[in-house]
Amino acid sequence: MHACLQVSDIQYLIFSLCEGISSRGTLAALARTCSQFYGPVMDALWYSIDGFSPLLHSLPPHLFAVRSRPCIWSEYVEERELYFAKGPSPEDWVAFFKHAHRIRDLTIGLTTPNLCMATTYSKTIFPVILEQMRLRLTDPSHPPIFPNLLTVRCQWRSTLGIVSDYIPRLFNSRLRTVWISTDAQGPREVEKYNDFLSSMKAGYDNVEILSVLSGFSTKDVFGSGSPQLSEYIASLHALRVFRSNVLIDEAAVRHLSLSRHLTNLSCRIPELPESSRPVSTLDSLREVSLYGPNMESCTSFLRAIRTPSLDSLELQFNAPCTTAAVHSCLEVVAASTSLRYLRLWADRVAYTFYQPRPCTITSRTLSLLYDLSELTELHVEEHIQLDLCDDDALEMAEAWPSMQKLVFMACSGTDEHQGHPRLTTRALLHVAKHWPDLYQLGLSFDASDSNRERLASLKTDEFGRCLRTLEVHPPLSYVDDARGVALFLCNLFPNLQAVRFSDTDLAHALLLCNLFADLQDVRFCDTNHAIAHG
Q: What SUPFAM superfamilies does UniProt report for this protein, alphabetically (predicted)?
């Protein structure tokens, strides 16, 4: 037999569809005037709270006071600080936690106050709340404070140090989503986060979504990784989404590669050897973002899994890559025939290392991806240089009929001294003709070859009208007929709104602004100067 919904369940589903401040006010009025609707309405209103601030509204106003203090970022500005003028009584704390059982999504912390015209909270308020939570949990017979919580978000470092010992009693085992995010903090805070993760192992192995994002330098703070995070990952057997920029160990990586429920994976992996274990099939995996020490480690991870439904792949690494490594990587990537988005890039430190010595790959290596007929976005940074000619561009354009965004930051030149790209304006014609939905193009091409006969034969109504952003990497200053090049671009891509090119001549920028009616931004990649055209 199928379980039937209760009337209150149906009412809750209806009320939960109401969004916005005005709708919430209407629901609150409905709860006050009709006792039958009170429970479902309050469940909808208290489903998600951003910090404990809404709970403070349950306390009597006479407990609070406001005082002025200098702003921490300006001595000429004052802040209105909210603080406890009188300690809440036991009855007040009962009112504070009255609706805690209705909360499904909780951020542990405090947001901007909405009481007494205050602009910030006193530093004394939050510890008082946490201390009251601790006192309630010292009684073993007391139920969890948030018994129905499904999602918890931890953003305050002071929170983690206080509640770690009480995690098994703070929430129940129904918890499904855990978000831990940090700001720019130092190594001293790492222990608190690791303790928090250790405490989560006690009864929270049903978590399906885990996100651990560090705002500080992961290399300096979590340089050796977080064993507690790796151990916690290994205990999660229903994991669907994992996002983290904290280094995990090889055992955690192996567990993730065997997690058949995964749909979204973003992680920082260690250096991995070539895998010899059987390949596991992850039918549900749609998005993968790997940050590894080198391209070989990313390739090793991808070899260990088969992803028939993969839609998005992003690989980032911080060590030089070789032509052979790129070829091996693209061979593995080509097996994911459903792929629609691919990006290869390096971090900021690696960028300065790669720039003078890019790795060059040929059209033969790029052609490994030509079987990805559904590919719509491809982004390759400067550290991988492409050796392409106009005929290669035609073959590429025919292989990816659905392309919408293509960015090749570097292409090889015709000679070692000038380095003019082998691609000419013919390449632009190929991509414009075969990619009608293209909205962003980044391509190095020789702008001096703007054949007037070719331009005159264009039927611009047929293609090129969707492109909004064009990145032209060689400078235009060496071109004899800069106006002719600009006219060529204007006719080929009449609806351009942004042009980015490696040039510092403002005259060319003004020329483009005058020719393109909808141009809003002309940006120099080298100098970060920009001209806005209304």
A: RNI-like
Provide the 8-state DSSP code for 388: -
Report which residue type is found at 408: F
Would you put residue 488 in left (φ > 0), alpha (ψ -120 to 50) or beta? alpha
Strands 469-472 and 440-443: parallel
Describe the crossing of helices 425-434 and 390-399 by its angle, rounded to 10 degrees. 10
Report residue 370 as tokens. 């030509």
Q: Which residues pair with 472 in a beta bridge?
A: 443, 501
Tens digit of each residue's pLDDT (9 = 90 or more) over 147-187: 888 998 887 566 666 666 667 677 777 889 998 877 655 55
Domains and CATH numbers, the chain: 388-534 (3.80.10)
Task: Give the H or E element holding residue 268.
Answer: strand 264-268
Alpha helices, DSSP H, located in 68-188:
90-96, 125-137, 157-163, 167-170
Contacts of 98 (CB under 8 A, 6+ apart): 58
Amino acid 205 reads D
Q: What is the pLDDT of residue 284?
A: 94
Rounded-to-integer distance, Cα 453 and Cα 451, Å: 6
Q: Count CA within 13 A, CB hemisphere, residue 117.
A: 3
Phi-psi label, residue 528: left if phi above 0, alpha if psi -120 to 50, beta otherwise: left
Q: Using an 8 Å Cβ cutoff, are 460 and 493 in contact? A: no
CB atoms within 10 A of CB 193: 25
Secondary structure letter of residue 453 according to DSSP: H
Contact 155, 163 (CB under 8 A): no
